[in-house]
Automatic annotation (TrEMBL):
<keyword id="KW-0131">Cell cycle</keyword>
<feature type="transmembrane region" description="Helical">
    <location>
        <begin position="491"/>
        <end position="512"/>
    </location>
</feature>
<dbReference type="Pfam" id="PF01926">
    <property type="entry name" value="MMR_HSR1"/>
</dbReference>
<dbReference type="GO" id="GO:0000028">
    <property type="term" value="P:ribosomal small subunit assembly"/>
</dbReference>
<dbReference type="InterPro" id="IPR027417">
    <property type="entry name" value="P-loop_NTPase"/>
</dbReference>
<dbReference type="GO" id="GO:0043024">
    <property type="term" value="F:ribosomal small subunit binding"/>
</dbReference>
<dbReference type="InterPro" id="IPR006073">
    <property type="entry name" value="GTP-bd"/>
</dbReference>
<feature type="transmembrane region" description="Helical">
    <location>
        <begin position="449"/>
        <end position="471"/>
    </location>
</feature>
<dbReference type="GO" id="GO:0051301">
    <property type="term" value="P:cell division"/>
</dbReference>
<protein>
    <submittedName>
        <fullName>GTP-binding protein EngB required for normal cell division</fullName>
    </submittedName>
</protein>
<dbReference type="GO" id="GO:0005829">
    <property type="term" value="C:cytosol"/>
</dbReference>
<dbReference type="GO" id="GO:0019843">
    <property type="term" value="F:rRNA binding"/>
</dbReference>
<keyword id="KW-0812">Transmembrane</keyword>
<keyword id="KW-1133">Transmembrane helix</keyword>
<keyword id="KW-0472">Membrane</keyword>
<dbReference type="InterPro" id="IPR005662">
    <property type="entry name" value="GTPase_Era-like"/>
</dbReference>
<feature type="domain" description="G">
    <location>
        <begin position="69"/>
        <end position="210"/>
    </location>
</feature>
Amino acid sequence: MTGIVGRMREAFRGDQRVDADALAARLDAVRRFLDAADGQLPDTRLVPAHTLVERAGTRLALSRDHTVVALAGSTGSGKSSLFNALARLDLSPVGVRRPTTGVAHACVWGPLDGANQLLDWIGVLPRHRFVRESVLDGDDERDLHGLVLLDLPDFDSVQWSHRLEVDRLLGLVDLVVWVVDPQKYADRVIHTSYLREFHRHRDVTLVVLNQADRLPPAELPRVLADLRRLLDADGLEGVPLLATAAVDPSGIVELRGALERTVAERQAALRRLAGDVADVVAGLDELVAAEAPAAGSAADTVAGLDRALAGASGVPAVADAVEAAYRHRAAGATGWPLVRGWRRLRPDPLRRLHLPGPTADAEPGDPAESLVAATSVPDPTAAQRSALGLAVRAVADRAGAGLPAPWAGAVSAAARSRLGDLPDALDRAVAGTDLGMDRRPAWWRIVGGLQWLVTVAAVAGLGWLAFGYALRALGLPPLEPPRVGVVPLPTVLLLGGLLAGLLLAALTRPVVRWAARRARSRAERRLVAAVGAVGREYVVTPADAVLARYGRARQALRDAAGV
């Protein structure tokens, strides 16, 4: 945003009119900036912007037909005398005792009713409000109708409350006339604490060297030249500098003419607010100096986050359990029927982890789905927890890379904001993942059926042989069984069934191992995807939300600057 303040300075030059609609658009941009930045940046950095939005909204809602001009100066500069001279009435107390002016006095040219709300907002007490309206004046004061002239307390008063009141009022008025005198025009306080701070409000600033009648005619140009040098050093190049003498009506002609032109233009309030916008934008510029990173710019670190989440959530242990469970269940479905019952006595590896998989009747989004019982997956080790912390930090650092420090801190805080909920979310993700183990492959049934067939054949052969042995033992005539070659059929059935069962088991075993590895890989991919989705929801998405806010805040501030 290099050069924004400079371009704003050109846009708000005093010889150009400030468009009310354009100013309203810039103020709305400041509001949008606050909407994006609130909660992300320190409140202390946003106070000036909040103050501006509130003050500008109130000022624009009040009378635009009035121009509020303040006479500000140090003790003894003759502010009150100048105030009375412009009003042509003795309204503000003048005296030798300092400080004389303790509260602000207001003089309104024109009807007071139209300015009362404005003065209520500014905080001038009703007993200190005066109307510059008299039938004796005729049209003499008509050119100043709409002027609200304030005589402020001395900003260098020994009473601290006076300075606080001056600081408050200077933030509310439309135009400031700084009154200095020949003795203290170079005073460090007025230059460092006030005039220098008004360098972005040059269009609504006017400086008068009062009591010029006390200087010899030959000295006046030299004093004015020195004062101009000081003003230029304060950043107030081009600010009108006038010489006045309150004791001589002719000594305020130039000042009165400047006020008449200001009142006629009806631009002071808009220029003041435009300067306030420039001031606020300049103060916030460093907070949005960098280009806004795109949401998801940390995608290359998400893979590392997924690996860390997988380790912390026990994905390797679950994948091992899936492979073991596949072998266990495959052996129970395709093994020799006579030993299947013995295998069923061994616990299922997935059941030991309380991972039966999702229920068939659970619907996505069902509240019951979020109440999955906790698994018995092993807790992460210290190394896995450390790896997860480093991965989250890497995502936060990459997402906030290049951002100003407050925003980078906000990104990091957002990435870590839900870490406390992460373990339960990972456990639910693992427990709710379809591991692909709820369906029995068709080839299991085919092999199981063949095992039953050869087992039945072996049992039939054994029974046949036993029946023949029983007949012989009882002395009954033996049965002559059919033969296959020279081998009796019962023997063929028995031995063939046993050998076929063993052969079928031997042929099935490598297929089971291959299929178990595939089941493991499939389950591992699904588990990594599930815990990765949790990582994106709990880590990446909050960080991306802050990045999106940063982008909106940066664009809003550019709009506020009129760039």
